[in-house]
Design goal:
Rossmann fold; nine-stranded mixed beta sheet; 19 helices
């Protein structure tokens, strides 16, 4: 089935989305994401739902609102709810351009509120409200409370001087937050008799008041299955609610099977905006982006470039996706940095390694594995795509597992620089991948240099988080150093040495907890590496691991901006820094010109 990346909507502020054009489609569906970090599990669910609907003969658009995901504008530039409602209308118009008139809007959580309030202007024929929040005010209070007690819990002094309302994953302007608060289920002027499927939680059903406000609609009620596991427990390793997805697909397919079909409208976009055709858009002053597929695995990426008038600074940067999240980076940080740096003349690529985000899995590869056996190969392929003549000149950037993959790929590429935020170095060299012989058929051994294979007994213990925490509290630092020298258990800081030995510079920024992986046995190992002049190791005690809070994003962005500026200055002919480094070895300078 064809699936095409596209930018659409207003030329001055294009939206990014995926258009799934079902052959001979009779109807279409627009999938409306929730706001903030809830969009992460929903994005994965919508990918599955889109494929099911497409196979059932329903064309689909899934997209990012203005100021979110890959769409244009910064979050601060979205000042009113009407802008996001207009984005839903634009997505519905895209389906009509693709040849379908009957459009269903599907929304989950806060996305359900946006879908309902956009329905009339989008001329929607039907609605699916999946675990809808009953009021924007209650939802904002809930997600802020969950954020305060979860992985991105704010700490005293952590936040920046944010002007607006912060929820995990996004900073909302004050007017936008107020208008979201004012939205309520059943308050939109949806035409009488509109078909609606409402999937409510068993443990949190829709209230009688909201239900009564939906009585004028042709509503079908059902259960949203497994929602606590889907949204409330761990959004970074979410459970996929397949029963709810199947219910939605069945309801939409059955309803649209009665819709008269027609051919594509004149000027329809079928095939026009394909990834192979390099869908592209101007996403800011002097900045353009295009969607790309990379290598035999067809890995997906977005290339951000300066316009011809801006010139080329020579800096090439590759952002690696984090964990199971997609290429936009934590709280969209990679998008914002890529566009800012492209405006200064850099070329930036952000990618999903195979089997995650928008990249397909390789043959026999399991999808959605954080430490895939192929991830390092993927990063090498992406760097080669970005700079075919000298992939080692590409600066590799990542956080958490993406930082680890950047370090490993930096060794393979003999990269000149890697910038790593909260690097999560796995304690084992056994990485999930293709079927392998042996007792663990779901795991393939793969060669890594930053992670050294330890004694099998210690490697097995390292897979137990509780055992590791207990060992850290009981075993003195000198003994850990001895175990490291004997090759029984690899010190986390030893992961940096193979990269530094190639002559690369490495910048590492860690939060307080994350730094303990490298400093728990004493700082001596890190100090020895810092004395090479190629490692900069910084501890930011207020840094959130997930980078979901605004303060963490601001500080990390400032640090990476400084590194990028120093790199561009070094490349500028005639500059003082360039003159000082003119005859130096590529890896001799630190990542910030140190």
């Amino acid at each position: 089935m064809p699936m095409r990346a596209t930018w659409f909507g207003r030329e001055s502020r294009p939206l990014f989305g995926w258009l799934h054009s079902a052959p001979s489609a009779r109807a279409g569906a627009v999938l409306c994401l929730p706001i903030g970090d809830e969009s992460f599990p929903a994005y994965r669910a919508y990918g599955d739902l889109a494929e099911r609907l497409e196979a059932a003969g329903v064309s689909v658009v899934r997209f990012d609102y203005s100021g979110t995901g890959n769409s244009a504008a910064a979050p601060a530039e979205v000042v009113a709810v009407e802008e996001w409602l207009g984005d839903v209308r634009a997505a519905a118009d895209l389906l009509r351009e693709d040849g379908v008139d009957d459009v269903t809007l599907v929304g989950i959580r806060s996305g359900a509120l946006l879908a309902e309030h956009a329905a009339t202007a989008a001329r929607a024929s039907a609605l699916v409200l999946w675990d809808p929040v009953e009021s924007g005010r209650r939802w904002l209070r809930e997600v802020r409370l969950l954020g305060a007690t979860g992985v991105s819990a704010p700490r005293e002094g952590r936040g920046g001087d944010a002007d607006g309302l912060e929820i995990p994953g996004i900073l909302l302007g004050r007017r936008l937050a107020e208008e979201l608060s004012a939205l309520a289920l059943g308050r939109a002027r949806v035409p009488d008799g509109t078909s609606v499927l409402v999937l409510e939680r068993l443990e949190r059903p829709v209230s009688a008041a909201s239900r009564s406000r939906l009585e004028h609609l042709d509503a079908t009620w059902g259960r949203a299955v497994d929602m606590p596991r889907f949204f409330d427990v761990d959004t970074w390793h979410p459970f996929l609610s397949e029963a709810s997805i199947a219910r939605i697909e069945g309801w939409v397919a059955e309803r649209t099977s009665r819709v008269p079909g027609r051919g594509p409208a004149p000027g329809a976009r079928r095939g026009e905006q394909s990834v192979g055709g390099e869908a592209r858009a101007e996403v800011g002053p002097g900045v353009r982006e295009r969607a790309v597929r990379i290598g035999p695995s067809r890995m997906f990426g977005v290339l951000t470039e300066p316009s011809a008038s801006r010139g080329d600074s020579g800096l090439r940067v590759l952002f690696v996706n984090t964990g199971l999240d997609r290429h936009i980076g934590p709280s969209r940080l990679w998008v914002d940095l890529a566009r800012r740096w492209a405006a200064d003349g850099s070329v930036v690529l952000r990618v999903d390694v195979s089997g995650t985000g928008d990249s397909p899995a390789r043959p026999s590869q399991r999808r959605e594995v954080t430490y895939s056996a192929w991830a390092v190969d993927d990063v090498v392929e992406a760097a080669t795509f970005l700079a075919p003549e000298d992939p080692g000149s590409v600066v590799l950037v990542g956080t958490c597992s993406g930082a680890y993959h950047a370090i490993e790929a930096g060794v393979a590429l003999r990269s000149r620089a890697v910038w790593a935020v909260n690097p999560a170095v796995p304690p084992s060299t056994r990485f999930p991948g293709a079927p392998a012989t042996g007792s663990r058929a779901d795991v393939a051994s793969t060669v890594r240099r930053a992670t050294r294979r330890a004694n099998p007994f210690f490697e097995h213990l390292a897979e137990s988080r509780r055992a590791v925490e207990l060992a850290h509290s009981l075993v003195p630092g000198p003994l850990w150093s001895l175990l490291d020298r004997l090759g029984l258990y690899a010190h986390a800081a030893s992961a940096f040495r193979p990269l530094l030995d190639t002559g690369a510079s490495l910048y590492v920024r860690c939060g307080k907890e994350e730094s303990q992986r490298f400093l728990a046995y004493g700082r001596s190992a890190v100090r020895r590496l810092e004395r090479t002049g190629r490692l900069t190791f910084e501890v930011d005690e207020l840094l959130d691991h997930t980078l979901l809070d605004h303060g963490s994003q601001v500080r990390v962005a400032a640090a990476l901006d400084s590194l990028a500026q120093a790199d561009r200055t070094r490349r500028t002919p005639g500059s003082a820094v360039a003159g000082a480094l003119a005859g130096s070895d590529r890896g001799a300078a630190g990542p910030a010109g140190s």
